[in-house]
């Protein structure tokens, strides 16, 4: 397949049937906006991608703030699909070769299908190639009318179709390829002489066919790929299909998913081999999980980095944080954004971390809150320990050294520093720094014993 492909993605419509304040293409499928799936499906072979935006165009732009090769044009008035493509006419004029036209609300269209469409178009030297599908119930779709050569003679919209034409079950997906010179000519000859007063891309196809140019169908095997999302019902259908694909991909790559129907993994998640995922788990965003991990039921992991041989026990939440190799988390742990947990550390049941650094081999076994703190290596944080990091106006950070022992139910009033091998007695309230090797007890904590020598 030639690499000089200009891709135009139509994403200007509001999508009123979604009943939403947000435009249709920004609704997520598999963890990312539906139109982003379409963009990602062509980036491997299309160096120039034009996205036609309209309603909430700034929000669409924000999805790709610095992505090379993506440009935007604005369709100020939504006057039909042909009119939308006309907004990219300047780019089409500069391009010599194949132009691929896609829709931002068809996130199920596979990369392999699009590549095959483009390759078939180029191999047969067609002026236009239309992606078609066979549907048991084609109601609502334009019908493909073939001529004696099995090429496309015309496309008849549902509202204009006669009884015989409505019986045809080969439908127009809307996705198509043009050679740029033919597309330019067809766009320049579009009119809006119809009940809606709009310019239709299907009229460009009919124009070329009427001129005797080669307009051919490309029939796909799975009609589900071209499902357009117009409402929340279709959104749910697409979500189910794409999550099945995601789970199959991970299982094919060596991940054990015990019950794929009850496991929810976003499309950009990466998981290493021999990792086991239990049911009712949600793995979201750009999470990366290493090899030989076990993720137990009812856990939620969002935009996190997890090393090898980690165990995430039941009902744990991990948000925008990194966990190193051989860490044990939970059950019922809550790791909030900004945390870093070093190898062989344990964050136990009903422990909450926020913007915290936990050193190698350190244990925070249960019933503790560690907020805005750095804890060194080999330290033990006793049950019920609280880092009181907020004074009512500002957050403060505490630093705990290596091999420290914090007694149960200690309150550490930040900001304080606790030196290496320091200790606190159970129930202590620490308001001042503790020097290396010193033991403190009481409320407020006072020196009980200092390191000899």
Known CATH architecture of the largest domain: Alpha-Beta Complex
CATH class of the largest domain: Alpha Beta
The span between the termini is: 77 Å
Low-confidence stretches: none
Please report which band the strand proportion falls in: under 5%, 5-15%, 15-25%, 25-35%, 35-45% or over 45%: 25-35%
Described by the principal axes of the CA atoms, the overall outline is elongated
Instruction: From the 3D structure, determine the CATH topology of the largest domain.
Output: Spore Coat Polysaccharide Biosynthesis Protein SpsA, Chain A
Put simply, the count of helices is 9
Radius of gyration: 30 Å
- Number of strand elements: 40
Largest sheet: 14 strands, parallel
Q: How many domains in all?
A: 2
Structural class: alpha/beta
- Oligomer designation: single chain
Mean pLDDT across every amino acid position: 95
Superfamily at the CATH H level of the largest domain?
Spore Coat Polysaccharide Biosynthesis Protein SpsA, Chain A
Query: What is the helix content?
Result: 10-25%
